[in-house]
Amino acid sequence: MKKHQVHNLIILDESGSMNSIKKTIINGFNELINSVKSIEKEFPEQEHFISFISFNSKKNNNIIHFTEPVSKIEKINDENYNPESSTPLFDAMGFSILKLKHYLSDKNNYSVLVTILTDGEENASKEFSLMAIKRIIEVLKSENWTFTYIGTDHDIYKTSMDLNINNSICFEKNGRGIKRMFEIETNSRIKYSLAIREGKLISDDDYYK
Q1: Has residue 191 got a pLDDT over 90?
Q2: Of the residues 64, 125, 152, 184, which has the fewest C-beta atoms closer than 10 A?
Q3: Residues 168 and 151: beta-carbon distance below 8 Å
Q4: pLDDT of 109-120, one tens digit each?
Q5: 204: Cβ contacts below 8 Å, ≥ 6 apart
Q6: Half-sphere exposure of residue 209: CA atoms within 13 angstroms, side-chain side
């Protein structure tokens, strides 16, 4: 029996303001990847893939992983995650989402979970506007894509709603807050995979509940 593909798209802010929590974010994401590996073992009828793209105004979009089986993912480190410069959030979202959408255009039997993590608001995009991203998300939410927004140091609820994303959480910008955020994210991913197994849809505001 063909396995159901779960594409985990992670879009991570790599702007300068993330530097103060760099090590904690690296550790947290490595733990999250390990959690996805465990989820794949717990739900053997599912096959998980990771697309991990970080962004800032200097590197633009740094493709660390793209549609790679989670079992083959290595840890991220100081070499492939080095925060600097500004926050072209809309460009990063547009690039990453459309790249994965194009890859999946001739495929079926899949779900997509998009996770955006940032500590600041958009301030440097040149190609995509808020309205363009909002329209893209609106269309894809009807095609088995789930979008989540994780943030700190700005009004994350307003920003996520402006983007047409109803699943959002705010975290405290310290070790304890980040650890708690990744715990919530891991638990939500388990619930997400369980919903897939049971043939249920995660509704637009159900992911973190």
Answers
A1: yes
A2: 184
A3: yes
A4: 999 999 999 998
A5: 141, 166, 167
A6: 7
In this structure, the strands spanning 46-56 and 110-118 are: unpaired
Record the tokens describing residue 182, joined without a space.
Answer: 């990744």
Q: Which residue has 């991913």 as its token pair?
A: 189
Q: Which residues contact 157 (CB under 8 A, 6 or more apart)?
A: 168, 170
Which structure tokens are listed for 32?
Answer: 């999250």
pTM of the predicted structure, to 2 decimals: 0.97
Q: How many helices, marked H, and strands, marked E, lie in the chain? A: 5, 6
Residue 127: Cβ-neighbour burial (10 angstroms; 0-12, 13-18, 19+): exposed
Tell me which fold the domain 4-86+100-126+140-197 belongs to: Rossmann fold (3.40.50)
> Are β-strands 4-13 and 46-56 bridged in parallel, bridged antiparallel, or unpaired?
parallel
